[in-house]
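Thread: pyridoxal-5'-phosphate complex, take 2
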Amino acid sequence: MTRAYNFSAGPATLPEAVLRQAQAEMLDWNGVGASIVELSHRGAEFMGVAAEAEANLRRLLSIPDDYAVLFMAGGATTQQALLPLNFAAPGQTADYVVTGHWSRTAIRQARPYVNVHVVADGEPGGFRDIPPRAQWSLSPDAAYVHITANETIHGVEYREVPDVGDVPLFADFSSSIASGPIDVSRYGLIYAGAQKNLGPVGIAVVIVRRELLERAGQPRADIFTYASHAARDSMLNTPPTWNWYLLGLTVKWMLEQGGVEEFARRSEAKAALVYEAIDSSGGFYRNEVAPAVRSRMNIPFFLPDETLTARFVAESRQAGLLGLKGHKAVGGIRASLYNAMPVEGARALVEFMRDFQRRHG
Ligand SMILES: *Cc1c(COP(=O)(O)O)cnc(C)c1O
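Output below.
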């Protein structure tokens, strides 16, 4: 068996060691005679798995004690709807910065519940840059300010935390969490679907300053209430236990590899390799994002025409490089370089890019 390098944007590549451990434990977890996915979420075995995953995630991201960590079904998009329901009064304004596709999704989910104010919009510039903080028109009475830390499709990433004063900053970290240190204390809330950088699809992580959980928000069911999930250790109902277990294995692997400082180093190295291959191609490959905000996680790039693009996708697949077709919203090619992608994978991609250009350029 040979495993390909998988550049898929999500669900995405997982560490081989994690998959192997899950495989080894599939039929009999820890000698109990059953798989972890067959056990009650309220039993000592799974409660242990869940608590260890949280403790390790807290260690990995240096999450302060005054933040709750929630493990939620429903992915990142569900959180985008829960934010206004939990933290904004009916009719209150919430500020949104638009930097690409996922900022728009966040707004679409929030609009039924809150007065969305777009404080800055990168679309007129083709989402090639993040509108400078000095140009944001923040509302003084906003419930929160929402940003997308990394735009998975457009390939733009904040390289510093924007200062938004006393209004809590909420950030969608779905595609960049744990790829480097995060100063959690600068945020009111961080959320991330796990399937890019934290493990499998089917579970999302929410890191929220506990005092925010006291906000009344809007009429909503208990199951949509973050405070209720926090009070019950994310076991208000049956949580996605298999996904939680796999997330726990992935987080543990990241700690063993050296933690977020090490992944920041690897992320810089991988991204530098690919951007260098693009920038030194004499225009054969193009990435149009402003260099200061180029994503380290998702690198969209373009070839001279559609025929070459299709050929690139087909030939790369044959060469054992998967998932390079760009998102339909922007076309072209997209290379996703999450934590589980080794530096050798980025090297293999760059080698293929150079060879492809020699043959077709
Ligand atoms: C993938 C992604 C989402 C959507 O996540 P789901 O789990 O499919 O709801 C939201 N935001 C960003 C930045 C993403 O990359």
